[in-house]
Design brief:
Distance between the termini: 30 Å
Shape: globular
CATH class: Alpha Beta
Helix content: 10-25%
Number of strands: 5
Amino acid sequence: MMADNIFMKIIQRTIPAKIIHEDEWSLAFHDINPQAPVHVLIIPKKEIRTLDDTTEEDQSLLGHLLLVARKLARQLQLDQGYRLVINCREQGGQTVPHLHVHLLGGRSMTWPPG
């Protein structure tokens, strides 16, 4: 079931993506439908559907995703600020059943986001 989602296909390299980071735990790539001048998705290589599906065992992985976001924000020169978003389930705005962090920047963000 999870192997059919678009993010797993990107991890498996069966569909292309503009990848900007990869390590043993995660992969990051530019979103194909950007909501800001910079819009990167950071995903774990481990199959996790939503944030609600994480466990205590995922604590290091979750921290790693945030550190990757910080590294990429610096790399992408988002020194004026950026936003990190994790959508959870359909009503939370999650459209792909694979945990992911949105890194958004390059413009002023408004609040509330929507």
